[in-house]
Amino acid sequence: MGSMTGRFFRVATFGESHGPALGVVVDGLPAGLPLSEADVQKDLDRRRPGQSPFVSARQEPDRCEILSGLSEGLTNGAPLALLIRNQDARGGDYRTLADRFRPGHADWPFFVKYGLKPQPGGGRASGRETAARVAAGAVARALLRPLGVEVRAAAAAVGPIQAQARDWAFAEADPLRYLDPARAAEVAALVQKAAREGDSVGAVVELRAEGLPPGWGDPVFDKLEALLGGAFFSIGAVRAVEFGDGLELAAAFGSQANDPLGPEGPLSDRHGGVLGGLSTGRPLTARLFVKPTPSIAKPQKTVDLDGRPTDIAVGGRHDPCLAPRLAPVAEAMALMVLADCRLAPPGKFQPQAGGREAGDKLSGEIGKEIC
């Protein structure tokens, strides 16, 4: 089911929405990186359900357990295994949906490909799977932080309400993780109205990564924006992605679209921090266009397992807007890609001694940067 990603920072997630646990294995980490369960917990708490009326009421503590890969608080070079136990699954909420496909969900294509009838909570295709990604992203954040790389994401639009300001500190404290304090009450009222009516509303999540040195990524097939785009599109609700000025560049002239260059690199950032598939040293900016939560209480048309037309209204606990909990997931996916780029071999030839001496030298250099 495509549960592994990464070339050098390798990640494999496992678990289902209503199974006993979710988890992730991270391989490729150098030894000597300081890491603790508390480091991972900070990011898991930002994604955790049940924290406000604007998210799912499912009460999951999402406590991280590190099972392997640490020795006395430092990574030891072995695979890092992290576990998150499910404690508030309510499979009974889905009993009446077991023979009908939920519109907008993976139920029907999973049935076609795997022969699986609709799974409680969506099973492997549930948004709950992203908890494991956030745990992996927290590990990547710990790897990148000593280099000065910082990644953050928040809602730049909810429904038709576009943020006119970017207040990242406000967004981090806002229950909808919305960027514009002046329009936050308007956004909250919109989401509350959708929830009362048994509906949901879409959003745009904006991501910004700062501190990247120039030259991360690769030309041709492994362009940085290609790797990031694939990571963002692996998030179930994301339907479009743009970098920098994105779609606006399609209506511009070249004289308007190009970023002028100075001795230190681009003087503007219309391309969102990436040129030729490589980071430019400017802030990397991306926007993820997120569809409304497909689980809604309003009646919808569907078919049952035998293909017979029927109606469905999805009960249970669901987010009326995905933005506040999807933003940490977007951060995690970007962090994983950037960690992968960080661990990639350098593009320039760097002569050094061979054999064991070379390996010790490289490990020492990485350890110095981390510590």
Describe the structure in your own words.
With 371 residues, the protein is an alpha+beta fold. It has a single domain (4-123, 144-348), classed as 4-Layer Sandwich (Chorismate synthase, AroC fold), CATH 3.60.150. It contains nine helices and 18 strands. The chain has helices spanning 37-47, 107-114, 130-144, 168-173, 184-196, 224-233, 254-257, 323-343, 355-370, and strands spanning 4-5, 10-15, 21-27, 64-68, 70-71, 74-75, 80-85, 150-158, 161-162, 203-210, 238-243, 261-262, 265-266, 274-275, 278-279, 284-290, 300-303, 309-312. It has a five-stranded antiparallel beta sheet with strand order 1-2-3-7-4, covered by helices on one side. It has a five-stranded antiparallel beta sheet with strand order 9-8-10-16-11. Helix 1 (37-47) crosses helix 3 (130-144).
- Kindly report the name of the CATH homologous superfamily: Chorismate synthase AroC
* Shape label: globular
Oligomer: single chain
Radius of gyration: 22 Å
Domain module tally: 1
Q: What profile does the largest beta sheet have?
A: 5 strands, antiparallel
Instruction: Name the helix and strand elements from N-terminus to C-terminus, one letter apiece.
Output: EEEHEEEEHHEEHHEHEHEEEEEEEHH
Return the average pLDDT rounded to an integer.
89
| Percentage of residues in DSSP E strands | 15-25%
**Helix content estimate:** 25-40%
| DSSP strand tally | 18
- CATH architecture field: 4-Layer Sandwich
Secondary structure class reads: alpha+beta
Poorly predicted sequence stretches spanning 5 or more consecutive residues = 353-365
Class in CATH?
Answer: Alpha Beta
Q: Give the count of helical stretches.
A: 9
* CATH topology title: Chorismate synthase, AroC fold
Physical arrangement of strands within the biggest beta sheet: 1-2-3-7-4
For the record, give the distance between the C-alpha atoms at the N and C termini, rounded to a whole number: 37 Å
